[in-house]
Amino acid sequence: MPITYLILYLNQFLTYPSFINIVGISLIFALIGFFITYKMTITFMPMTLKSGLKGIDINKCEDVHNLKDPNRKEIPESLGIVPATVFLLVTIIFQIFLNLDHEQQLQYNASLLSISFMTFLGFADDVVDLKWRYKLFLPLIASFPLIFAYSGATNILLPNFISNIIGIKSIELGVIYKFYMCLLSIFCTNSINIYAGINGLEVGQSLIISLTIILYNLIEIILHDGQVEENLFSMSIMIPFFTCSLGLFIFNKYPSVCFIGDTYCYFAGMTFACAGIHGHFSKSILLFFIPQILNFLFSFPQLIGIVPCSRHRLPKYNHNTRLLTGQKEHWNLLNVSLRILGPKREQDLCNILLIFQILCSIFALLIRFTLFKII
Ligand code: UD1
Ligand code: MG
Where are the domains positioned within the chain? Predict the structure, then answer.
């Protein structure tokens, strides 16, 4: 009986025409995006190095200022420009096959405009090292095309037990909801950028978040819970995002042969914000950012300047033991984890944090599809 039920459901879902079209074509484009990113990263690495875009792999040497240290390696920086450009190329061409109506076309292109602007800002940040106030202000402007093109609901549904008491099912928030979406864009872009500093962590967390979103959209479509078109919109940008990021991850994972720069962090953050906002799950998406929220909360006193904040808030590397030790003056999840778990190798710390991200994603999906239904 349960199997028949499942087959009936899956059958309905597989014969849904736009699902096959959008996901199928998206997968083909995404695969092409992966290979182009992989190839172009190899081509671009010596080019960015030559043009002076490079960074020191801080967790490989004890003193980054000691120019004679043989472990002080310069690595090409800002390679995030490659997946971002390939992603934009792929998604711009992809819309030819999407058969969108006027409104959907507007939302799709507004999202691409926000992502392009954010990528441009990230690249500018890598070149001139922007001040923190600009890093907060510019994502706000970048999110405007995305927000103005939004045509979904601006109300929030109240939990059942509250609506039973007060007799209202939802509250209309209007402009406050749009303001929330601006804040979400700022949060997504910056939260990935400050949860960083060890090889592979930025791209690794983005890969897991994008997979979680794809899974979330699939479950929504299968359960006929959310709106199918909106979930398909989110999938159509998350699938190529995942593969383009994977093309970069191969080079950025431990031991990194390239850094991704703020270009990638901002590109990734804005792409998530677009998926969440135009996919109409701008509240649920925060559930997929649990480690980033924790890191933001730990960092908050340093971000607003109550506690002194140095340029890099990284652990201390010991060359003899090859282990990283948590620093008590750096208030972030990296250092807190090391102080709880004890000194770790860089690759082990990254794996632990990525496993934590996966566990948080599983927890988030469980909460979203069980508890949220009951309350
Ligand atoms: C943010 C963090 C900063 C962290 C940095 C690492 C805040 C407020 N800022 O700053 O604490 O040190 O990210 O990205 O939390 N690097 C490595 N190994 C890596 C990745 C980066 O050594 O695996 C170093 C390299 O020198 C690289 C530099 O970090 O060039 C990039 O830093 P950048 O992205 O410019 O720092 P912020 O985003 O300003
Ligand atoms: Mg950065």
Answer: 2-156+169-278
